[in-house]
Fold each of these.
Amino acid sequence: MKRYFVKTSIVLTFILLLSRVLTKVNGETKTDNGLINLPIIEIVGNKFFNSETGEQFFMKGIAYQPRRTMQQLEEATGVFETKYLDPLADEKMCLRDIPYLKKLNINTIRVYSIDPEKDHDICMNALSKEGIYVLLDLSEPDVSIVRNEPTWDTNIWERYTKVIDTMEKYHNILGFFAGNEVTNDKTNTHASPFVKAAIRDVKVYIKEKGYREIPVGYSTNDDADTRSNLAKYFICGDVKADFYGINMYEWCGYSSYGTSGYRERTAEFKDYPVPVFFSEFGCNLIRPRPFTEVTALYGTKMSGIWSGGLVYMYFEEENHYGVVKIDPHGNVVELEDFKYLKDEFAKAQPIGTTKEEFLKELNESKPFKEYECPDQFKYPLWKANKNLPPSPNRIKCECLYDNLPCLMSPLIEPENSEYKRLFDYICHEVDCSDIVADGSKGLYGKYSDCSVYEKLSLEISKFYYQLNKNDRVCPITHKNVFYNIKSERTEDNVTKCKDIINTFKEHVTNNRMKSSSIAKEEDKDKKGTTKQLARDNSKDEKNNDKAKLDGSEPSVVLDTDDIHEQYRKESQGNQLSILDMNFIGALMIIALIVNCIY
């Protein structure tokens, strides 16, 4: 009897383990929800490591983002039509291209925009199966931090968090970019505080949601006037980027380590405390591109500092940076660049370290240098203040918008210049300092984190109150401006917004209407008008005539908290159901075995 009991116990243990175990194939794991998970790439000090093997990880990557042609954009209809194509949601496209990515010896792709409303399981699983990781920009052409009129507002925040919520479950997400070339020369360094604030808030969000520790970093250009201060700015103070990418185009054709500028850049980042890599590379002044820089990047002179890089780009377009072109039938045609890149990546075998060896080395050496933020007095052209914008407060902004007397509904993209015209007018009539965001002075108005249409609604309503109007007619005639009847509700109906509304009314009461003539004179020396044109910084045109995605006006903010929570509960329920089925199956098998024994 005891022998039968032992046998039954062994069988039971085996079946339970089998029902819960993750099937492992070629370093990947398959989970109960059907996702194939690669080992997570983690950051230790200034290097990437495979979390399972402990080996150092070097990116052999390529930018992977098709864009709509001008003809497609012109033919697009509807407010919700995106300017970009999401390659991770198009299974036909990604499944067609993955064999070519593998042929190129790619282990990482960079995707600049995805649609968080779409499903990405098929493409992300297929990439995982082939050992390919994804670096993902959080922005999209119509919603990004704009370099000339930067803001960190609820609209951009909603976009970023929706992308994170959609993509965090995939273990082959290597990291998120909070911005791309937002500051690209000495005229717009004031935009960098907004990106740094985004990094701060995204990292906090990931932690508070209980997601795995997904790195959040920044991708910069290689501008001689700003590169040194930018590199310091994003790793100084309490808020730091987890990694730092540089879009590097110094090496053209058959250049060399000594003449290209690579030697100088390597020396500059020798003591950098976070991983640094080429987030784009591949000068195209000479075609076909021989990609001789690959040998240097993964060789002994650079691999101790750099974690590899990503070639720009996979698809051949008007800018002539592609390694393949897609024919009219949707078939892939390899260009001459393809063979050169394939051969160079195949030869590249960087000599790295292991996590264990590196930790030992860190313990025995002095800690990484602490970088101070660039001094605005020492560098007059540097305008990025250490004081960062506040975290966007969606509840505050929605509260305000719901209870203002005059509201502005969002404009569609072709009308985006209307925002500028309306702000120019209204800010001559009222004080707009409460919506101004000044990254150079580090001053941010109380409502500077609200969306563009919420801010415009605020200033129009302020003008309405200052005119002592009570006729339900807003002081601006515009098809998108309307009177909000809900603003007449009693305070009992808006308890949660009471403090916000009272503060707003007190502010209005303490301000007097300016006459137009005085306003025009004063406005020359007072705060500038607030202009909100959200076009994509991520894919703006480079000095070397690289054509990239661009955009304009932000889209409507959607509240996804409830939807996301419901999704998580449903996902958990599905996982429990799978485990329950496995357990029931195990019990049935055990019953049969016991029956046979007895």
Note: The longest strand covers residues 173-180.
Amino acid sequence: MKKVNFNFSKSLSRRTFLKGTGAAMALPMLEAMTPAFAAPAAATQTPRRFVSVSLALGLHAPNLDPVESGRNYTPSLYLSHIKDLLGDLTIVTGSSHPQVSGGHKASGSILTGAPYSRNAVFKNTISIDQYLAKHLGHHTRFPSLVLSISGNNSPSYTET
């Protein structure tokens, strides 16, 4: 049987204290940490979020875009799979970047509309997701979260 060593000394090293405090600060507020009979917190509005999905090979637009516009549209084939969420989403369709060409590599301009060029002078601008993160992101833990499974061809660009 392994012997357990308890340290009953009253001193706590500064380093141990700082490590424990840092770990505690990184944790989210847990429901168990609030008093059981405390008044409920005032209802807060759910932060707005922006989601953009880019698929290098694209989607078949008639299966994605709803035919009708407005709040009470009939979900398309693809959107019918998330019909329970549609009341909380705004679907933007019909956007076009006629100055953007270059095939699959031009997907880097999907959120900026910057004209794509294959030469070295191509300079993108701030993308809509980063613009929104700058103005709305302070309401969430991470102002912006860009994920990719296809390497480093990100459509998300900051001002720098």
Note: Helices lie at 14-26, 61-64, 128-136.
Amino acid sequence: MDFCAGQHVSSAERPCVERSRAHGPPPRHLLEPSLLHRSPAGPGRRRPSRPPSVAAAVAAAVLAVLVALLPGQALAAHSTSEPSASSATTVAAEPACGTPRPGSFTCFALRRTDVPATLGLRRGQADPDGYSPADLRAAYGLPADGGAGATIAIVDAYDNPGAEADLAVYRRQYGLPACTSDNGCFRKVDEHGAAAYPAADDGWAGEISLDLDMVSAIAPDAHLLLVEADSASSDDLGTAENTAVSLGARYVSNSWGGYSDDSGQLAYDEAYFNHPGVAVVFSSGDDGYGASYPASSPYVTAVGGTSLARDGSTRGWNESVWNATTVDGNGQQHWGAPGSGCSDVEPKPAFQSAVDCAGRSVADVSAVADPATGVAVYNSFSDGGWNVYGGTSASAPIIAGVYALAGTPVSGTYPAAYPYQAPGALHDVTQGDDASCADRSVCGHGPTPDCTPAFTCSAQPGYDGPSGLGTPDGTTAFRPGPHGTVSGSVTDAGTGRRPAPRSRSATTGRPPTRGAPTGWTYRRARTR
């Protein structure tokens, strides 16, 4: 099966994909050759090209278009007006992972280059730059603790030798309980569940730190299982996915993917991602309109991305679809937005019956992903300490953590369906888009309209592609089973009379009829 980490096109079309000027610059991975070289650390360590001298110059130029922050606000100004591709923010950021080889995936982490990396806090700082765990919990109505008894797996490629030590720094900074291999909270394995760790990679090391920090921020009491694949190939990452589940994880966070129109991915779905009773979560991608894979698998929860900023509302926060131009360390501009779209390969799942799409529609839910309103991450191995990250690599582990707070998935069910049972229990994102909705030209096919139908890339009330059903508002939408209210009267089956108006209790659920969800029982409650 062939994957490319850019716009969704066939292998025959891939070399000559173009975007119109109105649509923005082409996806980064369709333009740039793989630039990987040995790091000074010696053989076996891979590092994407990242010229620091150029990055500094670019950062200075970008600062001219960024707005200074008020204390405690997001890293870049966030307009409450509806953004569009032409008015998207500009931010100095670059992809953490290099261009993948054919048949491999890439990670979706974006690292800010205009925020200096520091091993400690700068003078006068109380907290690192970027949103903290407390910020994220406040924005999404989540408790300060939770996740006890749950194991969240993080599946990534290559090794981050400093993962556990850096995680300790992050958790200590924010007052989170220690999570170490010594106390049994943290475990790292290779793709086969052993300790033969793969070669280290600077880019994926940043991804690993981002994932560990975000699940810690949301579910600080959960155990963490880091599964490192030997490479970013579909088979290695798929093997790691199965290992995570076999080791007992009921929540699996994945911040990687690619693009394919190959029907062979259906076989990959069955081999690696069909895990009923497990919340398998995937990033939707960072290249805007176009359904990425494995996020488009009907077995997983696809997570889009938003810009998140404080405001004076009752909630105290506002969100719109993330849509920004990023400038990398080479001075090249790239268009950043959550992946979305209607798959022409994956079948339409039953839980999306009300979505106007013939196949699987991406995304399901979303969370903050804009690097301009990014999150604090600690990675001393390859990024110099404290950094600010974005991309849907940030939103996916956030959602995995919310699932862990919500409770154990019901055996035999697919947690991707849960939010569709309670869409009103989410923050509906109604502003912004992830594309210009102009025509694009695909070699050999002529102009092809984007965003058909429009909800696939433009936010609207209810479901839309970039943000799905919305962002977390507590954990209700991520809980198993039917949601709603029950009304009616209670009568005594023997006399046909209503009981005296005294205290009553009842256990709700579905009656034992055909099609009742696995794991649900119906019990008659006593009146007293």
Note: The chain is about 15% helix and 20% strand.
